[in-house]
Design a protein that fits this description.
alpha+beta, 1 helix, about 15% helix, globular
Length: about 100
């Protein structure tokens, strides 16, 4: 594992193992983002922003598998599989989760 390609592929496999999910999408590091999830009429949306007040935010539709939103939560991080033109895995820090009121 002496080259960047092998290191990346190994790390990617370890990441999917950590979250306990299948490796069929790319990963985006959004640990610095604030985030919230809303469930609406049969679908779920993840909203994320660099600011806690969500004044400048973006959204993605959360992918479902077996009719369940693909949200994988561990003690410190959450992996959300969403669609933004392509299927992407967003990794968020749990401490930045903002509950929807």
């Amino acid at each position: 594992m002496d080259n960047p390609v092998n290191q990346y592929l190994y790390a990617k496999e370890e990441l999917f193992t950590y979250f306990g999910c299948e490796p069929d999408y790319s990963i985006t590091d959004f640990r610095h983002m604030y985030w919230q999830i809303q469930h609406k009429e049969g679908f779920s949306v993840i909203t994320f922003s660099e600011t806690q007040d969500f004044s400048d935010s973006d959204d993605a539709i959360i992918v479902k598998k077996d009719n369940q939103p693909m949200i994988y939560k561990t003690k410190e991080y959450t992996l959300v599989i969403g669609i933004r033109c392509v299927k992407v895995g967003f990794v968020f820090k749990n401490a930045n989760h903002i509950s929807v009121t």
